[in-house]
Design goal:
heterodimer, A: MetI-like fold, 79% helix, B: mainly alpha, 80% helix, elongated
Chain lengths: 220, 220
Amino acid sequence: MFDYNFHWRPVLRTLPDLLEASLVTLQVAALAMIIGIVVAIGLALIRLHMRGPLRWIATAWVELARNTPALFQLFFFGFGLGAFGLHLSPYAIILMGLTFNCAGYLAENFRGGFQAIPETQIRAARSLGMNGWQAYSRVVIPQVLRIVYHPITNQMVWAVLISSLGMLVGFRELSGETQFFASRTYRVFEYFAVTAVIYYVIVKIILGASRLLAMRLFRY
Amino acid sequence: MEDTISFFSSLTINDIWFLGEAAARTLLISALSISIGTLLGAVFGWLLYEGKMVATLTLAPILDVFRSVPLIIQLVLFYNMAPIMGLNLDPFGSGVVILTIYTSALVANVARGGLEAVGQPMRRAARSLGMSYWQDLVHVVLPIGGRAVFPSWIGVALGVMKDSALVSVLGYIELLKASQILITRTQQPFLVLALAGAFYFALSYPISRYAMKLEQRWGQ
């Protein structure tokens, strides 16, 4: 049918390498999400409760992360910081870029979540003798995490998809590894087809795991 | 005459013009894919809503693939697949095709949400007033459902505009690619990237703010 000979053997031979690289993808995405969630909570609280320079920084962070391409953000951490003599490794570029991006998007979700918790709950917690930290960590944040559970899942999927840009800054995660093998064997189509399938499976696994976790977490 | 030849030259007014042209190309490819993709996506959304069983079994999984595989993989894959299928597409053509399908996959969900946002009683009322199915769809569902999902459509459109930066991997010289070319020559990564980022931001920020305002006003 096609005037093209498909060669799947080189792909199959390097499949273990690709799968290993997909673990790198998952790892960097998960790490960026964990740091991103912590930062996002901070950004959301600053934007809700503070005035002055800190608030401007938080607002600038959120708006920049949301209104510029993720690739631009990666280039910025990659080349832009180079202007100041700061040369990061590809791993650091991806991790910082992803964290910056995820934190910006999640901050808006968290802001909505915090606004959904009535102020009276904090006062009730305080009058029970809890200090501010306890009130937040034991009363408010558990509820907020429940509200933003689905946005976090979506963001995790996005983090995996965005981490594929690692290929453009020389990071050997799943896409970078694919690019590497594809240019070594000239089997571009075959390699990227298999990688597309792997990404699809990863995304489905994340969504499935999130659903299972939700059933377990939100029983009550 | 100078004694030494410098490989690098500083930023000139011509370079700004070069960036401007590239920005116009970014706008062109995004406008083209967003407009065609939205039309296709609206049709897909309607099929998903009306087709029930058949559409959920055929169309939904296909659209799901385009949402679960990184855009950059889709682009490289399609660019390398087109010649196999006998198509002769330049980077711009491949970029438009993939961005259009990607947009339509995202818009399909939005459109289905819009259709579901219009209550059954209202549609029955429209039909019992003697409107035909299409009249009901155009004069009742479109204004009400369209309004409900307009902000999320803007979100999708802005996302595609930002994601169009990825077409640079195929060699299409849009804004981000142009800024990379300039960085290589001028060795001023920070300045050039800031210019490119400012363009994206200037385009995306006002529109997303406007969408947020609309959402708040219509939410009341």
